[in-house]
Amino acid sequence: MFKKILIANRGEIACRVIRTARRMGIATVAVYSEADADALHVELADEAVLLGAAPSRESYLVADKIIAAAKQTGAEAIHPGYGFLSENEAFARRVEEEGLVFIGPKHHSIAAMGDKIASKKLAGEAKVSTIPGWNDAIETPEHAVQIARDIGYPVMIKASAGGGGKGLRVAHNDKEAHEGYSSCRNEAKASFGDDRVFIEKYVLEPRHIEIQVLGDAHGSVIYLNERECSIQRRHQKVIEEAPSPFISDATRRAMGEQAVALAKAVKYQSAGTVEFVVGKDQDFYFLEMNTRLQVEHPVTECITGVDLVELMIRVAAGEPLPLVQADVKRDGWAMECRINAEDPFRNFLPSTGRLVRYLPPPATMRAAEPMPTDGGVRVDTGVYEGGEIPMYYDSMIAKLIVHGRDRHEAIARMREALNAFVIRGISSNIPFQAALLAHPKFVAGDFNTGFIAEHWPKGFRAEDVPHEDPNFLVAMAAGAYRRYLDRAAGISGQLEGHGVRIGRDFVAAVRGEGGRNRYLPLTIDVEGATRVEIAGREYALKASWHFGGIRAHGTCNGRPFAAQLERHGLWIRVDHNGLRIDVQLMTARAAELLAKMPFKAPPDLSRFLLSPMPGLLADVVVQPGQKVVAGEKLAVIEAMKMENILTAAQDGTVKEVLARKGESLAVDQPILAFQ
């Protein structure tokens, strides 16, 4: 077994590998960029080596620096994690040539599966079900149209070297096929340096289901069941679960056996994933093979009890797999939510900056540790309170994983865990995750890869967050307000007869847009529990919340809950099940006067182009005095691997350029002023 390994990655996956290595008695080496000097993975590792500047092309993507770091520290093997160089055939080969061990598949397996056209041919030869299509490079848009007609619309046009949703178009007619071919080639060349594209049949009501495989150097390959990854936004997974609520045991077995056949065909050694698209009749077709550990691997670990990272390390060290197919378990239900630094109410734009508060829900499961018999909550993360979310890398803050006896329990446990997940200083997608988990069709398991686009076609808005009882949040605010009053009443030295008097009748003002507040009369009594009555309904609250805190645990009418409360001036902010409200408690007379107060509208900023997110101003393409028309490109902002093009909302003339190319921008920072 190895004595020391280097992790060629960052963030939560680097921390995840370090924890397993530590349990195995293996020393670890972290690598980091200048932006990650204070990162958690650097702190957790036994040693750390600086690679270079913040951009990944100058640090995490420089193979020479990573191999030099391994040799410098005496590491015997390199674990690539996922992303960066994890599926780079040249890097894997170079590691082997330098006398080190690549903790992943052999370079020839990566090469065989890394090209989507070649991999589909190999899949066909291995008798794996493949989607009808044209798997050779297509040279002209006219040829693309002819192929699409022969296959039958709709079709998918995909980049051979693509991934992450880049270089992919769906065409429903000749015009879309012609245009999609050209744009797909251009995007593929810019993103991957390879403009080859292919075309395949688009499966209606498709689900994205993948099979986890594991192979060793002795010819043994097994599959560890499936993961349901159909909840996606712009081809990026949002929620993953295992098992799938859709497929039958017969389909599961057939998919697993085909995945094993493909892995054996390329002499696969290590953990890998064979991805399938599954139609509404459970007809399934091979999509691609990911020759690395997947982001969503924890859900497989939860239902099988297998530490995939440990087995990757053992296989790389030459050990045989310690289990056969008959040993693979499928216990309970696991679910993972990706907690990302993005603002769901601003079209999911990246959100970078300092984590002013970071308090994950209490974890009862941990990576590289045995599973509790009754399941629980696990948080895989690479951040900490006070740390920075830099603009240079992906937006993931953490992976929140739960395990329950069945899907119903897993969903309930995930909703409570999201309620208890405190993040301040940056925005996160937690409200969107909460809305997804509450959607009746998701709860019923009735969804496909188009679920998010279908149900939120115009983006996600605050009013899209469902809640079975919004007045519960008002009751929570009222309970907190009563605690403030009790504290004020208990202050010593108050003049007799003039101390704080606490009544029981109040009005809650729930803040609304444009000063249109909602007013709710209520009563508060303290008899054992704090009892709040609103609109004839009583809420008996017992909570562990404290002054200055945010997270609250307790019961309401005997049912457990987790929520978040914090005071902002006279207002109390409450978060629960994705819904956020601001509440101010007062007397009936004060509420009457507040309702008469004029609303001060925010200033009109329509004559400015504002940065919609924090990021790097990559380009400004207009000059003072230049006339622009609606839709014309004005500037480009880069953040978290995303390029965002800002365009003119209407015709106008540029008066002044207020930010320079290369400048780091804050949210709502003015870039241009118009006349």
Number of helices: 17
Question: How much helix is in the residues?
Answer: 25-40%
- What's the pLDDT, averaged over the residues? 93
Which strands sit side by side, in order, in the main sheet?
14-13-10-11-12-15-22-20
- What is the rounded distance between the termini? 69 Å
**Poorly predicted runs:** none
The helix/strand class is alpha+beta
Q: How many domains in all?
A: 5
Strand segment tally: 39
Radius of gyration over alpha carbons? 27 Å
The CATH superfamily of the largest domain bears the name: ATP-grasp fold, B domain
Percentage of residues in strands? 25-35%
Question: Which word captures the global form?
Answer: globular
For this structure, the CATH topology of the largest domain is D-amino Acid Aminotransferase, Chain A, domain 1
Biggest pleated-sheet summary: 8 strands, antiparallel
Give the C-level CATH assignment of the largest domain.
Alpha Beta
Compile the SSE list and pairings.
Elements: E1 4-7, H1 11-23, E2 27-33, H2 40-44, E3 47-52, H3 63-73, E4 77-79, H4 89-97, E5 101-102, H5 107-114, H6 116-125, E6 133-134, H7 141-151, E7 155-163, E8 166-171, H8 174-192, E9 197-201, E10 207-215, E11 221-233, E12 236-242, H9 249-265, E13 270-278, E14 284-290, H10 297-304, H11 308-316, E15 333-340, E16 342-343, E17 349-350, E18 353-354, E19 357-359, E20 376-381, E21 388-389, E22 396-404, H12 407-419, E23 422-424, H13 430-438, H14 440-443, H15 451-455, H16 471-489, E24 505-510, E25 518-527, E26 529-534, E27 537-543, E28 551-556, E29 559-568, E30 571-576, E31 579-586, H17 588-596, E32 608-610, E33 615-620, E34 627-628, E35 633-639, E36 642-647, E37 652-657, E38 664-665, E39 670-674
Parallel strand pairs: 1-2, 1-4, 2-3, 4-5
Antiparallel strand pairs: 6-9, 7-8, 7-9, 10-11, 10-13, 11-12, 12-15, 13-14, 15-22, 16-17, 18-21, 19-23, 20-22, 24-25, 24-31, 25-26, 26-27, 27-28, 28-29, 29-30, 30-31, 32-39, 33-35, 33-38, 34-37, 35-36, 37-39
